[in-house]
Design brief:
This protein is mainly alpha-helical. Helix content is 73%, strand content 0%.
């Protein structure tokens, strides 16, 4: 007791710091200034409003009929006719919009799964195997990341036209399963998250390379694979230029190209304006659902990749 009292009397500042959890004598830790915090919130609020306003307008416009679309407040509800508009959209031309939506789900869903699998295998091989030309091959992959997709559209069209695959499902699907960014991310994550000792132990137990990859490595790489899947899914879903030059048959259109085709004929068919608005709103629902379902793994993958 005497010793503690003496130490407190000699060094009262240390006692106050202990009581305040290591903060300074006034009980204040390192705090961010009020002005920078306020400025940051204002900037985030402005950009949030900037990005959400078009979606809000699209939601409001989808609930109106063609007469109320330009005669009422564009950012608030009028006569609520959303379900009637959806019913008319689905029934238009024997449900062609649903066919486009199904095509997009097929292109993006299956394409993203196959692209993620191929990217994970390529990235894993580049990370865990030593072979001549490995770094050269990886540099070629990095070069592919820098090439914009629009620059490859015309060469792809010429290649597919030579093998008679234009205006087919494969003309859009096959280019979608190649993801240079996915290969890059998979290699970086495999190097950091798959220990060589674990692979050696699996081989000593008699597992082959394919079994080791699918039973051990792919589980450790799962957060990165979800990130690759999401990026590829969104990229394929929003892909417009490739279907534009590859497809001619309406039954093969993805939803993005189908809505563009409708929008191009609004002057001749004014009733399509409502269909384009409602269809645009419905077309973003699968993206939102996918992100909500996978955001936990996606955030883990991005965070781990940034730390590594």
């Amino acid at each position: 007791m005497t010793t503690t009292t003496t130490m407190t009397a000699v060094n009262p500042t240390a006692s106050r710091r202990r009581k305040s959890g290591g903060q300074d004598a006034g009980g204040r830790g390192p705090r961010e200034g009020v002005i920078p915090r306020t400025a940051a919130f204002i900037v985030m609020g402005v950009f949030t409003l900037y990005f959400l306003t078009p979606i809000w307008w699209l939601l409001i416009a989808s609930t109106k009929d063609r007469g109320d679309l330009f005669s009422t407040n564009p950012l608030w509800f009028a006569d609520f006719r959303f379900f009637e508009n959806v019913g008319a959209l689905v029934a238009y031309r024997d449900g062609v919009y649903l066919r486009w939506l199904l095509n997009s789900l097929l292109y993006a869903g299956v394409g993203a799964v196959v692209a993620t699998l191929l990217a994970s295998m390529c990235g894993y091989a580049l990370a865990k195997y030593r072979f001549p030309g490995r770094e050269t091959l990886f540099n070629v992959v990095l070069g592919g990341v820098l090439v914009p997709a629009t620059a490859l559209a015309l060469p792809l069209f010429l290649l597919f036209s030579q093998v008679q695959l234009t205006n087919t499902f494969w003309a859009v699907f096959l280019p979608s399963i190649v993801s240079p960014f996915g290969v890059y991310l998979s290699r970086v994550f495999a190097e950091a998250s798959v220990p060589d000792e674990l692979l050696e132990a699996s081989r000593l137990d008699g597992a082959g390379e394919i079994r080791t990859f699918f039973t051990v490595s792919i589980r450790l790489m799962f957060p990165a694979l979800v990130t690759v899947f999401l990026f590829q899914f969104v990229s394929i879903w929003n892909n417009f230029f490739l279907p534009l030059i590859m497809l001619r048959s309406e039954e093969l259109f993805p939803v993005t190209y189908g809505l563009y085709a409708w929008n191009s004929t609004i002057n001749q068919f004014p009733e399509l304006r409502t269909f384009v608005l409602v269809g645009s709103l419905l077309s973003i629902v699968p993206l939102i659902i996918t992100f909500l379902l996978l955001q936990r793994y996606w955030r883990t993958g991005l965070g781990t990749g940034a730390l590594k």
